[in-house]
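I would like you to sit down with the record closing this message with an eye to the fold:
=====
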Amino acid sequence: MSRTLRHAQDTLIIREEDPQDDGVRTAIRSINEAAFGRPEEADLIDRLRGERVILLSLIAESGQQIIGHILFTRIAIEKNSCSVPAVALAPVAVQPAYQRQGIGERLIREGLDLLRERNEKIVIVLGHPNYYPRFGFSKEKAEPLVSPFPKDAFMALELRAGALDGASGRVKYPPAFGLSSEFTKIK
């Protein structure tokens, strides 16, 4: 999958990561380390790869250079014995020299569109409360969900209308996220 989008004077290509391409993996690691100023997000991506829970990994390329990355991972919402599949958006990163040019926004929109096409219904994000609502994320939609994160930064998005109606329960993350065991048991 590859989609070409116009960006400034350049062409921005957003495509799925080729899991066999070690050069892309190295670039993704470098982008995340540079964007966050630390290795934790890059290490998280490596752990998620090892656990085989990645649903979608997109890269943004400009002039044969990888300048952005976004990752979507399988999670679940569990209440009693019922488990509802959901998706975590984390992390999204853009090389510092290319930030504030709409590349992160393009990665998010493209990723959400692809998840809709793949019939996913719910996406969860921990992020800036002034940034993610533009994509439809809402802390109100996430209100009945239990997570270890601050309520003002924990948001949910319905990719299918009504997907969160009546939903409540604990959000379960893969162990790679390093949360307490009550938040990391995905069946």
Q: What stands out?
A: The first strand starts at residue 2 and ends at 7. Helices lie at 22-36, 40-51, 103-117, 139-142. Residues 5-9 have pLDDT under 50 and may be disordered.
